[in-house]
What we know:
alpha+beta; five-stranded antiparallel β-sheet; elongated
Amino acid sequence: MGALADSSFDIVSKIDRQEVDNALNQTVKEIGHRFDFKGTGASISWSGAGQNVIEIKANSEERAGAALDVFKEKVVKRGLSLKILDAGEPKLSGKEYRMLVSLKEGIDQENAKKISKLIRDEGPKGVKAQIQGEELRVSSKKKDDLQDVISLLKGKDLDIALQFVNYR
C-alpha cells in the first residue's frame, strides 16, 4: 500500500423498498377516500411475491392513469426518484384496465458503460471508474476530483436514479 491511498466511492442504483411500500400504502388510502375514484374499481398493490412490480387496476384507462399519478406524487414526497418507476401502458383485461409498474434497480451494463465513459470524457484526469456488477467504483488520488465527478453526474440527465455511497 502506497503512502497516498486512493479515495473512492461507489455509484449504485438502489431502491428503499420500505419507502416505496409507504408510498403505495398512502396511495391505497387516498384512492379509497377520493370522490373521483368512487365506483371506478381503482386499486394499487404489489404484484407477485418479488416486490419488483406494482399493479394498478381501474375500470378505465384514465382512472388507472390517475391512480399512477397519485402514486408518483407519494413517491416524490417520500424523497424517491421517479426514475425508479417504469410504467407500462394500461391494458384491457376482461372488464378492467391493468397497468404494471416495474421498479428499476441496479445499474445495467449499458448505463454502467455510459457513466464510465462520461467520467472518462468529462471528469477530472486521473479518476478511474470500474464496473463491478450492478455498481461502479470511482477512485482518485484527489478527494476534490471525486466531488467533481459527483457534481458532473448529478448534472446529467441519466434515465436511472443514482446514489453515491461508501465514500472513503
